[in-house]
Amino acid sequence: MTKDRYSAVWVSHTSINDFLQCSRAYYLKHIYRDPKTGHKIKIMSPPLALGQAVHEVIESLSVLPVEQRFSTLLMDRFEEAWKNVTGKRGGFFSPDTEDKYKRKGREMIARVTKNPGPIARKAVKIKEDLPHYWLSEEDNIILCGKIDWLEYLPETDSVHIIDFKTSKYDEDGDSLQLPIYYLLVTNTQKRTVSKASYWYLERNDDLTEKELPDEKTSFERVIDVARQIKATRQLNVYSCKDGQCKYCALYDDVINGKGEFVFVDSYNTDVYVIPPKAIGESGDDESVIL
Predict the structure, then answer these.
(1) pTM flag (> 0.85)
(2) Other CB atoms closer than 10 Å to residue 224's CB: what's the count?
(3) DSSP tally for the chain: helices H, then strands E
(4) How is 157-179 classified by DSSP, letter by letter?
(5) Distance of CA 202 to the CA centre of its chain
(6) 10-residue block means of pLDDT along the chain (290 residues)?
(7) How many whole angstroms separate alpha carbon 106 and alpha carbon 246?
(8) What is the helix (H) or strand (E) element at residue 134, kind and residue range?
(9) Residue 167, CB half-sphere, CA atoms under 13 Å: how many?
(10) Which residues contact 250 (CB under 8 A, 6 or more apart)?
(11) Domain positions in the chain
């Protein structure tokens, strides 16, 4: 088959995870477009806003040489990043809820400032804005995704995959995140992957090292789900096995006019929020899944 990136099915950790949770949620998040605007839709929530602001600070450092990373205080960078998620733009319906999440973010940034670890050491930056490669030319499937941080290990001329976690929950042991990241880094830059870690910023000063996944097993696991996604897209049948689950219900609410439009983001996506009373909680429960 001739390679054609425009007709290929692109998959990522996020899209694969959404598909495994609910194929209808996958459709609503990654394929559906509002017939009036032609845009995809997204629901913003306080946990997402927190993660966005903290990751924006870290990502801004990854493109800088080591000696320039702390020329501006990280807390000042965070304050600037928070401006993009303040109020309803971040899914906040009360000043108290926003203050709670902003304090969490400030605590995470203070932790990184006090214990910079890999942030203060050399890093590898993949040149592509969205790293990707052909997972399978035969199946016309491309794997893509952004890695939070690639630490350069000069003693072995290798890289260390680091993912920053802003949630209080540990990554599921069966998650495909590390296998996907391992495949991406291995196939989009020349150095060997010798380490992989999570940094749980809410509670840990240090990284939590994880066992490196096996490349062959990783490929088999990822390509299996990717082929399921491709087959589902070809059949154009996206159903929720529960009728309507927590993963797709809020997106259905937006489509049915129950969401509140807030703005169009830099990816030309229509961003909505759902009033707390509509989802039966106070607006600051991290267990709400969007």
Answers:
(1) yes
(2) 9
(3) 8, 10
(4) TEEEEEEEE-SSSPPPTT-SHHH
(5) 17
(6) 85 98 97 97 97 96 94 98 98 97 98 97 93 97 97 97 94 94 97 98 96 98 98 96 93 95 96 77 43
(7) 30
(8) strand 132-136
(9) 14
(10) 43, 259, 274, 279, 290
(11) 121-221
